[in-house]
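Why should sequence recovery work at all? Because a backbone constrains its sequence more than one might expect. Tight turns favour small or flexible residues, buried strands favour hydrophobic ones, and helices have their own preferences. The token representation captures these environments compactly. In the example below, the structure is given first.
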């Protein structure tokens, strides 16, 4: 039995240690752990415990092996046998927008296609109009409620894209809202998706709009609003040549890129994204063999979005077997957005990834944890291990495969975010 040191914070100068209060130390007992800490397997520990110090995991293992916790206050938590997994990571969302598109959904059910509606000026553009009409505080309030619902489903890290402002100030507003959502609690990573659709004031001038985006990007970056850059590469959106210009501007700022690629057709987006060492290629239903090889060589994550596939009643499946054979990591996210995936349940996406895309339950859960973290370039989360962030989700399941099995009802009992317990229904982070 090893004693834990008084403090796990490495390398602080003596004065800083004296001045700063010690981080809260908590022990979480009576947990059924699924650590995902090894490259394969669930990493099950039947009667486990976790010691957290501030926002980090200090120790994790069998409760019987708990080290002596030394002097000083330790807060005790009995988890009552709950299943504990790494906090879920939703690495692809469009969470900040005004309005909703239920009428468009109804029209599509009557036969109109997503592309028809987009070409007729509906679709993304109608959400742009509703977003521009909303105040920043209104956008914040709606998005905070959405984020709380995601968190109550086990999410402790979320990526939020802009893309419904499409002007310098409206995009900045949406990114600011995303940043404000990250000020407490759930980690928020922001992505500029200004190259999402052509705003009406640039009608017929897509290249001019791309020029503007390339000029605006350094300014949003200077305001501290952007962690990554995305684009929608599709025949109804932007060409590979246009996306290449946006990615070059991102590269000049040292920002990583990712791409909405091959969602509705094979445009060779994955090969372009690979040239820029993209963190991920997302959707990829129409991905070709050459695209798979390019992603493998670039180390990009395959971001699977079964909510959009389901909602658009797509039939073309992403090439899962080829991605698996190439060793491309598979991630799963909600793609929450009002047009193609109005869901706020990442556990439901785990289920759909298994049923519709034929992932194994373990692949799908890894897809919503460790591989999603990788898609955000975050190496400190997605598994449970000493030194990792103390982000975990508590479930009323016996085995983690049940995350994929049950669907459509909440099974998350709460989350621990940066070492602090948040029961379901707790106030939205503001
Ligand atoms: N692909 C999508 O699925 C969303 N954006 C994108 O580039 C849809 C956005 C919308 O319809 O509002
Ligand atoms: Fe998307």
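From this structural description, the recovered sequence reads:
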């Amino acid at each position: 039995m090893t004693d834990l040191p008084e403090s796990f914070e490495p390398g602080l100068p003596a004065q800083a240690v004296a001045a700063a209060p010690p981080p809260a130390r908590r022990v979480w007992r009576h947990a059924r752990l699924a650590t995902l800490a090894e490259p394969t397997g669930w990493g099950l520990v039947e009667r486990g415990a976790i010691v957290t110090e501030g926002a980090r995991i200090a120790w994790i293992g069998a409760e019987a092996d708990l080290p002596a916790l030394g002097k000083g206050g330790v807060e005790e938590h009995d988890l009552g046998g709950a299943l504990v997994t790494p906090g879920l990571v939703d690495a692809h969302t469009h969470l900040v927008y005004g309005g909703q598109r239920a009428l468009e959904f109804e029209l599509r059910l009557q036969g109109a296609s997503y592309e028809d509606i987009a070409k007729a000026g509906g679709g993304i553009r109608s959400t742009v109009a509703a977003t521009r009409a909303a105040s920043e505080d209104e956008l914040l309030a709606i998005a905070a409620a959405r984020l709380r619902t995601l968190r109550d489903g086990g999410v402790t890290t979320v990526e939020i894209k802009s893309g419904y402002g499409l002007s310098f100030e409206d995009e900045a507003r949406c990114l600011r809202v995303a940043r404000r959502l990250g000020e407490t609690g759930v980690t928020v990573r922001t992505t500029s998706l200004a190259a999402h659709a052509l705003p009406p004031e640039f009608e017929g001038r897509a290249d001019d709009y791309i020029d503007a985006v390339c000029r605006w990007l350094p300014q949003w970056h200077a305001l501290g609003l952007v962690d990554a850059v995305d684009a929608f590469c599709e025949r109804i959106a932007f060409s590979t040549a246009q996306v290449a210009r946006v990615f070059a501007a991102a590269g000049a700022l040292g920002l990583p890129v990712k791409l909405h690629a091959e969602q509705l057709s094979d445009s060779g987006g994955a090969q372009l994204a690979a040239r820029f060492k993209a963190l991920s290629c997302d959707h990829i239903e129409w991905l070709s063999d050459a695209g798979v090889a390019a992603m493998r060589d670039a180390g990009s994550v395959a971001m699977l979005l079964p909510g959009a596939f389901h909602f658009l009643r797509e039939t073309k499946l992403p090439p899962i077997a080829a991605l698996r054979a190439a060793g491309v990591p598979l991630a799963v996210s909600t793609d929450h957005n009002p047009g193609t995936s109005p869901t706020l349940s990442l556990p439901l996406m785990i289920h759909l990834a298994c049923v519709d895309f034929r992932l194994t339950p373990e692949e799908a859960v890894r897809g919503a944890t460790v591989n999603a973290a990788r898609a955000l370039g975050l190496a400190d989360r997605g598994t449970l291990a000493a030194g990792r962030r103390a982000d975990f989700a508590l479930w009323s399941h016996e085995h983690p495969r049940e995350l994929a099995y049950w669907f459509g009802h909440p099974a998350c009992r709460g989350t621990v975010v940066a070492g602090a317990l948040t029961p379901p229904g707790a106030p939205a982070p503001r």
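A few observations help interpret the result. The chain is about 35% helix and 20% strand.
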